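Cross-check.
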Amino acid sequence: MKLLVIQETDWQLRGPHQQHHLFERLSQRGHDVTVMDFEIDYAPWPKTNLFQPTREFECSRTAPDTKVTVLRPGTIRLPAISRLLSVPSFWIQLGRFIRAEKPDVIINYALSTGLPAQLQSQRFGIPNLMHVIDALPTLIPSKVAQLIARPIERFLLQRATRTLYINKRLEQYGVAHGAHASTVATIRTGVDLQRFQPDLETQYLRDRWDIAETDVVLCFVGFLYHFAGIDTIMRLLPALPSHVKLLIVGSGDADESLRSLHMELDLKDRVIFTGRQPYEDMPVYMALADVCLMYAEINEVMRDIVPIKTYEYLAAGTPVLASQLPGVMEDIPPGNGVLYVPEDQLLDELKRLLSADYRQPIGVQARAFVEAYCDWELLTVEFEDLLQSMANQKSR
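Predicted model, tokenized:
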């Protein structure tokens, strides 16, 4: 199949997310994958050139032997208008690509650039799959922009040939916001069970970050949102023994405030900020951890989703300490490696997790869950079958 993927974020720098794993595996299976993305993390003019011309390049994020082509339409690097101007640019590039390449299915992960994708798919009679991995309007910081985004989301959900979700709560969200119940399907998120394992060699990272074998490591991996709950854990560190360390792997919006809190609490070497790290090192960071953290605020962004790192944490055979996130609790019931802890019980649970004897059976449960339900290889076949059925509709 020829597959065209639409997203409004940077394929090369953000993630890897669900789509990276699926489409890179599909490319390994012989399918032709092109992604149209948006340079969301650009340095604005005058720090860089005002105009970003259309670019085309190949990119691999989750495996070195994959071939995904990224086509990035041109835009103006001005924060107030760059995304707005990307919409007509996408429209032009989409039309050119569709006429030249005749894709079998368009797969949409976007709102702003998803709108021209939906209209062009209807114009050219190409099946359109809207793959929902987040409640997209909730990710927009501006409340005014959210008001504009919600009717666009409803339009896209209503007009898509099929809609696909990563869990049942998001499926319910999609139907409530316009998707037709007869068109919905759910394929859960997966994990590379060969890459993420409990017993990886971690000494080089211990040496790099001065982490002793006797330290108990609480590890957060991912984008540093203000609502990620890292500050909640930091505030409890003074009440825990000095050999408990917090390892923060990633960067993001909350970076500066977390570093200020680190200074305010005088935590010194008990908190380690690694910054953004290569994806290929993530399995080792998770294997190094004694406890992985997902103690996020329960807000409209986090309520219904299951972040992909949840399954990677579990595959590392590590207990996951989480807030009572409804989407995650429904997808991974208690007793499968995730500890859902109210905030008033958080310190007591952290103290229990200092014991290796307490952690070990929880880690075994974690690994067993992903082995049973979350193998990317099996999920990719399921996804491939769905896309093939849509491509067959086009050919009839």
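The mean pLDDT is 94. The chain has two domains: 2-190+376-395, 203-373. Passed to J.P. for a second look.
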